[in-house]
Design goal:
Blueprint: E1 2-3, E2 15-21, E3 24-28, H1 30-38, E4 47-52, H2 56-64, H3 69-77, E5 83-87, E6 90-101, E7 106-116, E8 120-125, H4 130-141, H5 149-162, H6 164-183, H7 188-222, H8 231-294, H9 309-330
Parallel strand pairs: 1-3, 4-8
Antiparallel strand pairs: 2-3, 2-4, 5-6, 6-7, 7-8
Length: 334
């Protein structure tokens, strides 16, 4: 990416502006981009303004540009449902990009707000957003392909949607590993990771569904009969979202099957333990019964005065225990 000789204004440290010119896309002063947003020149190329970690000052700036207070409030509060709202000459879009947290090895969703006007794109988000950087890199590599804001909107949506595929692959590999653990016996941590993965898939499905509706709305309302050249591109994004949703559903089914298999194996193991304990309790009960009989303090018990009475009682206990043990082993209880 080329840069202009003038650095972005230092009084807007959270803002960065880009603009297409004859010799490519350049970083331009924020004031220049703001002036273009307020009063665009006829047939001027679009500008892209990024706002990172917005605060009250950035919120006030967005209001001064004429954006609806509710849309600005959404950008500052965050945690919005993916949506597309039209406000006269501009549209407000909320989408989510996905990536894997390298420290925790878990899925992370990153919220992105975008204002799409006739001559500008304004993106607002917290922290670094790889999907946005990739979209900017595409624009810099081929400015002619993304010559207007609708094409830039496709560029941004395409990179955001593509960020889901590595996450899907990661979750698929994790589920395969969990299935192997389940077949090998598993543990308590296996159940915890199964439930965590199912929760991540639910979050992902909750985001993908509304994003598919956004792209469908653009195809029906914004492109119909006007920008037929962009229809195949947005249709491709829509197809990617359908594929992602189908893969999420397939992974959820695999995860449910693995969880049910683990619970079934745990129940079977519990039944085996209960049967083994039951068999041993019956074996010991037989020995206790013999000991209880000869432990009664009656005067007329011949065996009490018999010389071989004690070895006879022990032998009877052992014999009964052996008979019961053989019986339970043949029944598969031991």
């Amino acid at each position: 990416m080329s840069s202009s000789s003038v650095a972005p204004a230092t009084r807007h440290p959270r803002l960065r502006a880009y603009r297409a010119r004859a010799d490519g896309v350049h970083v331009v002063p924020v004031e220049e981009a703001l002036a273009h947003i307020r009063q665009p020149a006829p047939d001027a190329p679009p500008v892209w303004l990024t706002v990172v970690d917005p605060g009250p000052e950035e919120g006030q700036l967005l209001r001064s540009l004429g954006f609806h207070p509710l849309a600005v409030e959404d950008t500052l509060r965050g945690r919005q449902r993916p949506k597309l709202e039209r406000y006269g000459a501009y549209a407000f879009v909320v989408v989510y990009a996905a990536h894997i947290n390298p420290q925790r090895q878990r899925m992370a969703l990153q919220e992105l707000h975008a204002f799409l006007g006739p001559h500008y794109v304004i993106t607002v988000h917290d922290g670094t957003l790889p999907a946005e950087r990739e979209a900017l890199a595409r624009w810099c590599a081929d400015p002619g392909r993304f010559a207007d804001t609708l094409a830039l909107g496709y560029n941004l949506l395409d990179t955001v949607v593509d960020s889901f595929f590595p996450v899907i692959d990661h979750l698929s590999d994790r589920i395969d590993a969990l299935e192997q653990e389940v077949f090998l016996g598993g543990s308590r941590s296996t159940v915890a990771r199964l439930l965590q993965t199912r929760r991540e898939l639910a979050y992902l499905r909750r985001v993908v569904g509304p994003m598919r509706e956004i792209v469908g709305s653009i195809l029906r309302r914004d492109l119909a009969g006007r920008r037929t050249d962009l229809v195949p591109y947005f249709q491709d994004v829509h197809d990617h979202l359908l594929r992602i949703a189908e893969e999420i559903d397939a992974l959820r089914e695999l995860l449910t099957a693995a969880l049910e298999a683990h619970l079934s194996a745990a129940s079977h193991q519990l039944n085996d333990i209960v049967r083994t304990l039951t068999a041993w309790s019956i074996i010991l009960m037989g020995a206790s019964w013999i000991a209880g009989v000869y432990g009664m303090n009656f005067e007329h018990m011949p065996e009490l005065h018999w010389r071989w009475g004690y070895p006879f009682a022990l032998g009877l206990m052992v014999s009964l225990a052996l008979v019961l043990a053989v019986y339970f082993r043949r029944r598969g209880w031991m």
